[in-house]
Amino acid sequence: MADKSFKYIIVGGGVAAGYAAREFAKQGVKPGELAIISKEAELLDSQGFMCALEVEERNSFPSGMQRKARDPFFNMVSELAPPNSSFSLLGPLSYIVHAPDVQSLVCRGEGLESHIGISLILSTYIVKADLASKTLVSAAGESFKYEKLVIATGSTVLKLSDFGVQGADSKNIFYLREINDADKIVEALKANKNAKVVVVGGGYIGLELTAVLRMNNIEVDMVYPEPWCMPRLFTEGIAAFYEGYYKKKGVNMIRGTTAVKAVKLKDGRVLEADIVVVGVGAIPLTSLFEGQVETDKRGIKTDAFFKTSAPDVYAVGDVATFPMKMYNDVRRVEHVDHSRKSAEQAVKAIYASEQGKSIDEYDYLPYFYSRAFDLSWQFYGDNKGETVLFGDTDPNSATHKFGQYWIKDGKIVGAFLESGTPEENKALAKVAKVQPAATLDQLAQEGIGFASKI
């Protein structure tokens, strides 16, 4: 079988891969130079996805390109609809999707190659990567040669079996990481319209999935082993609001225990459930490159331009462990915002190196956000140091607007805000970036007003 050769290859089909491809197009990639190789049949992943030709205007799709809006959290099965419309989740039941910026797309490939010359090699599972010879080999035995490689393989879901849980192979246990997972959950819900669901996990997936299920009047128990939800980011004070709000919405939240046998809990309780959805985290997909690149913090170590220790190999998104300039350390970040920006940085760096030019180092301000029910929060910066809550933290409040600052060495290093306006969220980002001096008492009194005047 003859080798296929490309100047650039992106391995992966999710957000980072899509934004890398978009940046290649912006930089003027020539027809036939770039290929995207993905094991998926579509360009997507669980965090919302981006096609190689991400289009900001809905009427400017290349001819023949199939359009779908597919977000596993909020509209698991739906066709792209006009702005501000309802997306169907289960028949007549609907959920309003508020896209954070531009519309995400799924591309099956029709029209892409003829439009800008990007080769989409989908449903292709790479089983071997020889970085020394710059060769990738698929499960079908195909070989792909590259001059420069962008690793955008993302993460894979952790399963209950990874923790030695009994009964983890039960047919009513589902995971939510890819579009196929979402389709299976929807089919199960359609088959049992009065289903009782247990969601295992108290992070992004657990909170967002639980919200969309409850908005469709599905009975949900939410189970997680930590003392409060979203413990990697939320403090106990922040989490108390969301736990109270979810309980108000009819969610039965069970903290501090885990499922050890489908819906049997570690503390002995048994929950009745027709469907169990597990969202207990993910691990970066780096095994193809082990022993060939330097690693750190479970990721592939890169420089500030996302170049790895292997010649002409870059790593972006979930798999990259990179220098966090703001905090003078190295980190690996699992979030769509970093996936987008790291991909753009890597491709800009590739073109700059080819042209003998330089670009600025990656100077990333950590940013996380989520939307559930009628709630919408944003966080910027670092969640280390002393904390101060401000605003209305009553889950029964009509406004439920509150926030929190993190202070380290007398300076604000992180800021969180629920139900902020665009202007307030912009101020939040600025205060986390500038890191002004402040006291806890001052921030408790001024709240978001402090950030707004910086």
From TrEMBL:
Domain of life: Eukaryota
GO cellular component: cytoplasm
Residue runs in coiled coils: none
Cofactor(s) this protein cannot do without: FAD
Enzyme class: oxidoreductase
Claim: Oxidoreductase is one of the keywords in the record: yes
All copies of domain Monodehydroascorbate reductase 3-like C-terminal, residue ranges: 365-451
Single Gene Ontology MF annotation: monodehydroascorbate reductase (NADH) activity
Substrates-to-products reaction catalysed: 2 monodehydro-L-ascorbate radical + NADH + H(+) = 2 L-ascorbate + NAD(+)
Domain FAD/NAD(P)-binding: 6-339
InterPro entries: FAD-oxidoreductase/Apoptosis, FAD/NAD-bd_sf, FAD/NAD-binding_dom, FAD/NAD-linked_Rdtase_dimer_sf, MDHAR3-like_C
Keywords per UniProt: FAD, Flavoprotein, NAD, NADP, Oxidoreductase, Redox-active center
Pfam family membership, one: MDHAR3-like_C
EC assignment: 1.6.5.4
PANTHER family recorded: APOPTOSIS-INDUCING FACTOR 1, MONODEHYDROASCORBATE REDUCTASE 1, PEROXISOMAL
Family recorded in the similarity comment: Belongs to the FAD-dependent oxidoreductase family.
Function recorded in the entry: Catalyzes the conversion of monodehydroascorbate to ascorbate, oxidizing NADH in the process.
Name this polypeptide is given: monodehydroascorbate reductase (NADH)
Native source species: Capsicum baccatum
